[in-house]
Amino acid sequence: MAKKAVALLSGGLDSALACALTLRLGFDVVGVNLATGFCVGEGRCDTALALAQRLGIPLRLLDVGEEFLAVVRDPKFGYGSGMNPCLDCRILMVRTAGRVMEEEGADFVVTGEVLGQRPMSQHRRALDLVARESGVGDRLVRPLSGRLLPATSPEREGWVRREDWLDIQGRSRKRQLALARDWGLTEFVQPSGGCCLLLTRTYAVRLRDAFAVRGRDNLTREEFALLRFGRHFRVSPTVKVIVGRNERENAVLAGFAPGRWVLSFPRVPGPVALVEGEPTDAELGLAARLAARYSDARPDEPVAVRASRGDEVRDLSLVPLAADDPRIPLWKLGE
Ligand code: SF4
Questions:
Q1: Both 144 and 28 in a single domain?
Q2: DSSP state of 59
Q3: Mean per-residue pLDDT for 7-12?
């Protein structure tokens, strides 16, 4: 009976190639795609599905959102350049794949990690650490760099020869792109596309602010999600204003209304804005003037703004803040 691998399939190039190589070596493969809730762009999971279809393997879609939030709140091995806890994230992913390996009665786990490709999580010591901390140990295989790494269980058991693995290392993707062409893989997410919200400066700034004001453990999954949308302004230590940038964001922000003040413009086209915290009357007025700066209201005349929270409704009439008000860039979080 063919030995079986569980392969993490993110939708990216490297994991697709690692999976394809494992299949070419005659192993059965089950793909696993993990949703963290922090993917940039849409369709990575669709891409993983398309890849699995192309490769002819089953794909298990798992939500690790709650466990991932615990890692983002308090990573044992710290953050990278943004708020990306890459080492802890890799450990979580491999540990989850290890769990699937046990469930599936599989023999080893495959990832698309490449030696030296990422500074935080793919240098030699980091790869060893992930294998150890995940509990998967020498049943964790990185086929793209396997020839450069210590022998793992499939090699020791004699299921593969050392030279069956590849010896790719470093940041260049030339060899991977050539292999993808040779093997007819076209569905992957482009390597230049970025992958993770936690790597972006804007999200990192907002998350640090939210941790400081709300406390790491108090921030809900919904609040993590809201940090993605709109322009965010910290107008006082406890009050934040979020202003939609387009119709789509206005609709999304309206969905976050429960428990927050919502600002809208009954007489002129304007954004939906949310006010978080317990604003004083003066702070609510300031938030309304800030939101009005992004409406079609005339800059020097009062405009009607409706502020509502649940059953409470206040109709205000205020002059928008000037577009060049020097406080605006100081309040702004990210971008
Ligand atoms: S960039 Fe994001 S998804 Fe990728 S390893 Fe780091 S934390 Fe995980």
A1: yes
A2: E
A3: 94
pLDDT tens, position by position, 105-150 = 999 999 999 999 987 778 999 999 999 999 999 999 999 999 999 9
By C-alpha distance, which of 147, 116, 110, 145 is closest to 131? Answer: 110
Q: Residue 179 sits in a domain of what CATH number? A: 3.40.50.620
Can you list the alpha helix ranges (DSSP code H) found in 6-123? Answer: 13-24, 44-55, 65-73, 86-104
Same domain, 296 and 153: no
Work out how many domains the chain is built from and give that number.
Answer: 2
Q: Could you tell me if 279 and 298 lie in one domain?
A: yes
Which residue is closest in CA terms to ligand 1's atom 5? 86
At residue 213's C-alpha, the angle toward residues 240 and 120, to 5°, is 110
Name the closest-CA residue to atom 1, ligand 1. 196
Q: Cβ distance 216 to 73 under 8 Å?
A: yes
Q: Which atom of ligand 1 is nearest to the CA of 36?
A: 3
